[in-house]
Fold:
Amino acid sequence: MSAGPSAAAGSPAGALRHVLSHLVTPLLMCIGMGLAYLGAFHAPQPHDLRVDVVGSGPSAQVLAQTLQDKGDGALSVRTVADRATAAEHLRTQDSYGAYIPGRAPELLVASASSDTSATVVEKVFTQVAAGQGAPLKVTDTAPTADGDPTGQGIFFLLVAVSIGSYASVAVIGGAGAVLRLRVRAALAVGASLVVSAIGAVFAGPLFGLVDHGLAGLWAMAWLYSAGILLIGVGLHTFLKRWTTLGVMVLFVMLNFTSSGGIFRPELQPGFFGALHSFWNGSGFVEGVRSHVYFGGHALGGNVLVLALWFAAGLAMIGLAGLAEGKRRSAAALAAAPSARPAAGHEAEASAEEEEEMEETVGV
Structure:
């Protein structure tokens, strides 16, 4: 019988040390979540937010330059010749607003790209129109689905799929500790299929976050979830009970904050904007937006991001397999002629499972 857990349970001092050692993980999670979420979201300010002024005459040029100067880096303003060009820039997400001056000024936005960015742009040009003594007409060239009026439903879908994925890592790594790695990897792939299917049900029939393109959304959700699960299961070989913390850092703290689901990089500190270009959460959020609302523009790049994270998961499983193979070889060489009773392995696995499940903490 293993003496560790029993000694901890039988001695008050040992039990206290046991509890305190396990409190380290949630306290680190608290610090990490606070730094990540407050650092990314507490004071959104625009910087280099691209907007267009429609017109080619001197008045349009003067207006654009005035906005650029007054913005002090908040806006990146350019002029475009006509409304069609401005609308195309919104479709390709080369800009987040287009102002058409005149007696009846109009602002074009694409709220499906980012509702918060559209709101910032609308606030700026409402003041511009008011200075000209005219009410502003706002035209949304890419509205979101009826079931997602704020445009943030895709982000919360990301949260649900992520939690299902990283929590499954703890279960597979802990409860499945006695299983061979190939079996755990197969369980990871299977779990990702279930998690992504649940996500598709949320997005489509249950909440109507999207009104078309559900099959493509499911495929990206599976690729995203499988990447998390494979990386997590592979990491468990090396991190053991610290796996949950490691996976939360990768796929919650750094992931949610850089996904662009609430604020795009143009409204965040540069660190999170840099992560947005290659992190898997942004690949999912931007990929779904592109697929559902923007005719697939830049979809390939976002799917590539998800595929590369999936490939990283396969590589991590490969490294874990090599490490576990070496451990088995070393154990076989060091073993006594009589094999260790199977009950000993089961007791160790049970203890590891118990500790792993204790570390599973929700967002």
About this structure: The beta strands are 49-54, 75-80, 98-100, 106-109, 137-140.
